[in-house]
Structure formats: structure tokens, C-alpha cells
Amino acid sequence: MKSKGGRTVYSTESAVPRGKGGADKGRTEPAASLPPWQQSPRVRREVAGRGGKTVTTVSPLVLLREEAAALLAAWKKMCGGGGSLKAARTADGSPCFELEVQGDHADRLVAELLQAGYKAKRAGG
């Protein structure tokens, strides 16, 4: 059958499999953790898009999933609330994590990060 031109909608004959474009293109999580003194996470208080609930977010943190989950668990216990771990990207496009803790705990988390050796700063208002 003769091609009518235009774009291909579906084909089983793909030259490059999806997600195999570059070294970090398909990766959604960091391959290794960076030491704390090489990271500068920003701590923000967010309300927008959350039904009026306040959430404190910390990102970017280049940690392995196990380390990020352990850090989040300690923060949730310290703050007495819930939280979540989300995959994100740094400014240069490499994978990292964003940690969210329910409630306004920005000052407390900045102090904890500084004590752990991170170059953390408070961002936003």
C-alpha cells in the first residue's frame, strides 16, 4: 500500500526504543547519592493547588530512594504529620527527589538540614 505522507501514528518497527535516548533520559531516580555538602536544597511553604492545606517542600535532593525515604520518615515523625516522596529533576535535568511534609515546618526543616551538613536555604515568603 502506498504511503499517504504525514506523520506515523503507530508502528511496530521502531528504530530507537522509547526511553533509550540518552544516559539520563529514561532514568527517573538518581543512580547515586551526593554528599550533603554538595547539595543546596530549597525549603518552601506551599498552599496553591492543595485545597488550602499547607505543605512544606524540600527539593532538589539527590539521594537514593532508600535514603530519601528514611529522611522523610524521620521528618514526618519529628513534625507529627504525613508526607510524600516525589521524583523530580534538577535545573540541569538530572533526576532528584522532592520531599513534602504536611504543615508549615519550613524553619524546623532548614535547621535539620543545616545540622546534617546541607547548604539549605528558605525559599519563598
Give the topology, please.
Elements: E1 42-46, E2 55-61, H1 65-79, E3 83-89, E4 95-102, H2 106-116, E5 121-122
Parallel strand pairs: 1-5
Antiparallel strand pairs: 1-2, 2-4, 3-4
Q: Which key phrases capture this entry?
A:
Translation Initiation Factor Eif1; 5-stranded mixed sheet; alpha+beta; 125 residues; globular
Quick summary:
This protein has 125 residues and is α+β, with helices and mostly antiparallel strands. Helices cover 21% and strands 23% of the residues.
Describe the structure.
The chain is α+β, with helices and mostly antiparallel strands and 125 residues long. The protein has a domain at 36-122: SUI1-like domain (Translation Initiation Factor Eif1, 2-Layer Sandwich). Helix content is 21%, strand content 23%. The protein is built from two helices and five strands. It has helices at 65-79, 106-116, and strands spanning 42-46, 55-61, 83-89, 95-102, 121-122. It has a five-stranded mixed beta sheet, with helices on one face. The relative contact order is 0.22.
CATH topology of the domain at 36-122: Translation Initiation Factor Eif1
Shape descriptor reads globular
Radius of gyration: 19 Å
* Model regions low in confidence, pLDDT < 50 over at least 5 residues: none
CATH class of the domain at 36-122: Alpha Beta
Gross CATH architecture of the domain at 36-122: 2-Layer Sandwich
| CATH superfamily label of the domain at 36-122 | SUI1-like domain
Largest sheet data: 5 strands, mixed
Structural class, by secondary structure, is alpha+beta
Number of helices: 2
The helix content is 10-25%
Question: What series of H and E elements makes up the topology?
Answer: EEHEEHE
Strand order of the largest sheet: 3-4-2-1-5
Instruction: Kindly report the average pLDDT value.
Output: 85
Distance N terminus to C terminus? 62 Å
Task: Report the count of strand segments.
Answer: 5
**In percent, how much strand structure appears in the residues?**
15-25%
- How would you describe the oligomerization state of the chains in this entry? single chain
